From TrEMBL:
It comes from the Bacteria. PANTHER family: FAD-BINDING, PUTATIVE (AFU_ORTHOLOGUE AFUA_6G07600)-RELATED. This is Flavin-nucleotide-binding protein. InterPro entries: Pyridox_Oxase_FMN-dep (IPR024029), Pyridox_Oxase_N (IPR011576), Split_barrel_FMN-bd (IPR012349). Residues 35-154 form the Pyridoxamine 5'-phosphate oxidase N-terminal domain.
Length: 206
């Protein structure tokens, strides 16, 4: 059915024709490392989605634990212990085929999400695995992600979904203004953004 769609969009040019160009801020908010504010958001996150693409196609798998379960080893390296699951290990097989990975971090109560892209590698380093022991269980492997791209996604999707209801944002999670200020090298005034721009998002959800 889709192959006969006369309205199918098959080129970048045709796609762009349906959208206005992104604002300068949107293009400049991308960072290539984990700054202290980003590390704070990751530390407040108990859940993320891991996207991979291997020989058998794409997979998107959930990862969750106590806030901060993904460890910031340094400004360009994240460590993700592989907790007990069903042992399909689809995402891990993908990473052996193709190291490109993407992570989407969520913080309950926070509308924004954090997007991280980079390359992954798996390790069975005994010392590193032992570091992430929980309830006497040592993870079988640890995924190390070399960060290439970091940026915040605005809160529209979370607001439209009403995902968190009335749940309050954790105090430990940096604000969108703080994160944008850090990622754009000061292009954004954090206090002004949080006071003026952030509230406007809820008025332009559609």
């Amino acid at each position: 059915m889709m192959s006969h769609d006369p309205h199918a969009i098959t080129t970048h040019e045709a796609l762009q024709a349906h959208y206005t160009p992104p604002r300068e801020l949107v293009m400049k908010k991308v960072a290539d490392r984990i700054d202290p504010h980003t590390a704070g958001f990751i530390a407040a996150s108990p859940f993320c989605l891991l996207a991979t693409f291997g020989a058998r196609g794409p997979h998107c798998t959930p990862r969750g634990d106590a806030p901060g379960f993904i460890d910031v080893l340094d400004e360009t390296t994240l460590a993700l212990p592989d907790r007990r699951g069903n042992n399909r290990i689809d995402a891990l097989r993908d990473i052996i085929d193709n190291p490109a990975v993407a992570l989407l971090f969520l913080v309950p109560g926070a509308g924004e999400t954090l997007r991280v892209a980079g390359t992954g590698r798996l390790t069975a380093d005994p010392a590193l695995r032992e570091r992430y022991t929980m309830q006497g269980q040592v993870p079988a492997t640890v995924l190390l992600v070399e960060v290439r791209e970091v940026f915040m996604q605005c809160q529209r999707a979370i607001l439209r979904a009403r995902l968190w209801g009335e749940r309050e944002r954790p105090r430990a999670a940096p604000s969108m203004g703080e994160l944008l200020a850090a990622h754009t090298g000061g292009l954004v005034d954090a206090g002004k953004y949080d006071a003026e721009s952030a509230p406007l998002v809820s008025k332009v959800l559609y």
